[in-house]
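FW: tagging you since you asked about this chain on Friday. Here's the raw sequence from the shared folder, copied in full. Didn't touch anything.
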Amino acid sequence: MAARPRAIFLDALGTLVALAEPWPALTELLREHHGVDVDEADARLALLAEMRHYRSHCVRAGGRASLAALRLECAQIVIDELGAPAAAIAPPELVPTLLAALRFAAFDDAVPALERWRAQGRLLVVVSNWDISLHDVLRSTGLQGLLDAVLTSAEVGHSKPDPAIFAAALGRVGLGAAEVVHIGDSLEEDVFGARAAGIEGVLLARAGAGLVAPDGVRVIASLGEW
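HL: got it, structure written out here
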């Protein structure tokens, strides 16, 4: 590990931004916008199925048209999972409701950490498995202006843990792997993916302070620890 890395790469979801559980909001919005009553437990199962599909396919949503197509697919999955109560809702009508149920916020330690690292002269780059809407999320949560670059899997064409996305980030900042660390909350995607690109990966375990670092990996419980 470089004693003072020149750049810090960061995961987005679970590292910089949190997603509030969307099923309570979806249950409420279905009732308000569509006159549909569903159990929150059913909304949860439907959204979990939608999220699995999204994570598997967000890499192909690198443009507005492809993102719109993916969102329609996700809406159809929710409709299918909810069954009869939602059968009359057309996917284009459900997409705005789904988006409204997704409420992101920056973690409390995100802005202070980014500001501190910027004051130290470090380049800050988000490397995330996300579609192009990540730029909008980072802007709305007040993080965009504190970052030097944002690379999404959709724009790069490769998803973590593929080292290609990390190589693309290195190319963006013009640095070598030894000059960078990557911080994220997934051992496989962030730590092992970064390692495959020659970058040290630091595991952010927000609920796991005191964990023994697997395979010598440094584990931190908050961004303030770095």
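FW: Residues 11 and 61 are 18 Å apart (CA to CA).
HL: agreed, and The chain has a mean pLDDT of 94.
FW: great, closing this out.
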